[in-house]
């Protein structure tokens, strides 16, 4: 049975994502995303399940930065998980007693409207995860009164659901990915996504456009682009890309190879089935058979044929 690390403890959205992505896996709760990825890297676990982006909050930058550096890991699967928040309290807690609220920063931001409306004077404090917040509120003598958390954590930690559906939007989704140490890639399914990190060779006019054009001229649709600071001063960035298709597809493989030629470094983060099963629209001249035919035509003319 494989063991997967995740942002714990039991009851986080990450826990729910892991159970959906790998129902038979053993799970290893970690204190933060970095620790979960390190467990996958050093072999403590066979892989990890981590949040990558949220439909309201955008990128989970901690995950992006950790995947871009250090020992490489490959994304082997993704899941879109609807996220619904509840306010969890110790049983018997009344509204006027809720003065200190804790949760994961992403959860706090997604419930800002509710908290400002219902508890305008409360202190809101960031905690490592939603379920860690629930666990803290349940602990004897905790100075905190309420946790923004998935409802399921109430059962795990003996809390009561003071309010449910407290997110500012009811249709929020977080995209989670499963990562593993490099090995074999998931087979192409025709509905795949490829993730990459690109470090520029130098900063010059049009550098971003040159990268984008490698995808555009091969008819590869991008589904996400994110710039992240390298840390080497203001104005220095690297880029995360998600594109439609699998590295085994000629158009995707050639686009990535072109970036490898032109850029300082390209970190391949994996090709894996899309959670929404969406298939790319393949423009004229961009199909596998057309790439293959063009390659054999080139071979022919290079060897003197017509
Ligand atoms: O704290 C959790 O429950 C998590 O799984 C983390 C996380 C996140 O990193 O965005 C996941 C989904 C929600 O957006 C809030 C928190």
Automatic annotation (TrEMBL):
Site (Essential for prephenate dehydratase activity): 174
Location of the Prephenate dehydratase domain: 3-181
Organism expressing this protein natively: Microbispora oryzae
Phylogenetic classification of the source organism: Bacteria, Bacillati, Actinomycetota, Actinomycetes, Streptosporangiales
Pathway assignment: Amino-acid biosynthesis; L-phenylalanine biosynthesis; phenylpyruvate from prephenate: step 1/1
GO biological process: L-phenylalanine biosynthetic process
Chemical reaction(s) catalysed: prephenate + H(+) = 3-phenylpyruvate + CO2 + H2O
Domain ACT as annotated: residue spans: 196-273
Protein name: Prephenate dehydratase
Enzyme Commission (EC) number: 4.2.1.51
Keywords: Amino-acid biosynthesis, Aromatic amino acid biosynthesis, Lyase, Phenylalanine biosynthesis
Assigned GO CC terms: cytoplasm
A GO term for molecular function: prephenate dehydratase activity
Pfam family, one: ACT
NCBIfam families membership: PRK11898.1
Stored CDD domains: ACT_CM-PDT, PBP2_Aa-PDT_like
Residues in the signal sequence: none
Alphabetical list of InterPro entries matching this protein: ACT-like_dom_sf, ACT_dom, Chor_mutase/pphenate_deHydtase, Preph_deHydtase, Preph_deHydtase_CS
């Amino acid at each position: 049975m494989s063991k997967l690390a995740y942002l714990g403890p039991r009851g986080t959205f990450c826990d729910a994502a892991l159970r959906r992505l790998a129902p038979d896996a053993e799970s290893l709760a970690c204190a933060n995303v970095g620790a979960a990825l390190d467990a996958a890297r050093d072999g403590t676990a066979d892989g990890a399940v981590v949040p990558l982006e949220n439909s309201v909050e955008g990128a989970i930058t901690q995950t992006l930065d950790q995947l871009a550096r250090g020992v490489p890991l490959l994304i082997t699967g993704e899941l879109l998980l609807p996220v619904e928040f509840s306010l969890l309290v110790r049983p018997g807690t009344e509204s006027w007693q809720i003065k200190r609220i804790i949760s994961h920063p992403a959860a706090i931001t997604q419930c800002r409207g509710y908290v400002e409306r219902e508890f305008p004077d409360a202190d809101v404090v960031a905690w490592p995860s939603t379920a860690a917040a629930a666990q803290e509120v349940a602990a004897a003598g905790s100075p905190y009164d309420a946790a923004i958390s998935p409802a399921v954590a109430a059962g795990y930690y003996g809390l009561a659901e003071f309010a449910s559906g407290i997110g500012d939007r009811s249709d929020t989704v977080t995209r989670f990915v499963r990562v593993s140490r490099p090995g074999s890639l998931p087979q192409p399914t025709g509905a795949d996504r490829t993730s990459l990190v690109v470090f520029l060779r130098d900063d010059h006019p049009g550098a971003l456009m040159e990268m984008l054009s490698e995808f555009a001229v091969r008819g590869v649709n991008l589904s996400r682009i994110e710039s992240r600071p390298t840390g080497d001063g203001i104005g220095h960035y690297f880029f995360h890309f998600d594109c439609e298709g699998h590295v085994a597809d000629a158009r995707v493989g050639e686009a990535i190879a072109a970036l490898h030629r032109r850029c300082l470094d390209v970190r391949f983060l994996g090709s894996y089935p899309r959670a929404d099963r969406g298939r790319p629209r393949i423009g004229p001249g961009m199909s596998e058979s057309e790439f293959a035919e063009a390659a054999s035509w080139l071979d022919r003319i290079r060897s003197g044929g017509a």
